[in-house]
Amino acid sequence: MNELFLKLKIINALAGIVLKGKNVGDFMLGKPVRIFEKVLAEYTGAKYALGVASGTDALILSLKAFNIGPEDEVIVPAVSFFSTAGAIAWINAKPVFVDIELSSFNINPNLIEKAITLKTKGIIVTHLNGIMADMEKISELAKKHNLFLIEDAAQAVGSKYKNRHPGYYSDIACLSFNPSKILNGFGDSGAIITNNKTIADKISLLRMYGTTFENLSAKHPTIGVASRLSPFHAAIMNVKMENLDGIIRRRRENYFLYSRLLEGIGDLIIPLVPQNYFINGYRYVVLTKKRNELHKFLRENRVDSRIQYGVPLPHFEAFCYLDYKKGDFPVAERIAEESLVLPTGSNIAEEDIHRVFALIKTFYEK
After folding, report:
1. What does pLDDT average to over the chain?
2. pLDDT band at 1 (very low <50, low <70, confident <90, very high)
3. pTM of the predicted model, to two decimals?
4. How many CA atoms does the CB half-sphere of 171 hold within 13 Å?
5. Among candidates 162, 201, 174, which has minimal Cα distance to 59?
6. What are the angstrom distances between the C-alpha of 143 and each of 104, 122, 139, 165, 193?
7. Residues 6+ apart with CB under 8 A from 247
8. CA 230: distance to chain centroid?
9. What is the C-alpha separation between 282 and 131, in angstroms, rounded?
């Protein structure tokens, strides 16, 4: 879709809300939100989709739906965005970190069982960089120990594991639509998808102060917060959903072009995409012992390379009370020292990828 045409469609959609909105209900979970939730559920194959204010809120409300609180433990990967573990700590539960796989940057299923205690109530997995975790194995573990399973799928809209979208193997999948994501609004927004009606009903109440719009300030069966998807954000994403597959297709082309060009260059370790996985091309990350030098060289040549996850979550100051030490998460610590994100996206031309490749080749030849 032409960029100017896309912006005009979005402006028209936003203007429609302003011009047609007549009462409070039009601006609190109004028609654009209902449309988006229906389209998102159909796209992901989920029975229910509920729009919320952010991806972080999606995680917090999901945990609250399982009555998680003080003294409870929830297992999380040692590498993820802060909110994955921060949401657990925010409701006074304890995040228990597990190291990751070098091949996928996702939680290592073989290490999860050792982290389970009598206080463990659930597992949150993150699909980092658009590559889904090994959901079949993790789902079996969760069922074996009677634990809930939440997917932090903020980076994985459109990705699949064994032809299944996030939400199929878990109780809940949490999505983010902030401006950095493939499907994005013009600010923070998120969604929760699930196949469990009881969970969907509970989250529907939690996001609306613990009640329904019709019973607001009259009947509150539980305690909730104000965390609703704005109809303006929903309208934007309704427009963008029309071209989501096209955006993912373009990002995948850039992703696999990098892999073809960079294979065998220097000491680079390039991403490995296992069979039966479909990635959305969200982020292309390489590993190199010369990460800092390569990053500096690329930036000097006007390439927007970036260092993501330069500190494993357990080593954040906010989690110092958990007393984790250097060496507790060797793979996460290696990734913190060696990973480098190369520019990708649907708006990057093929010649830009070739230029980045040429610079990297020059760097190693020197």
Report:
1. 95
2. low
3. 0.94
4. 21
5. 174
6. 23, 10, 6, 19, 19
7. 182, 346
8. 19
9. 8
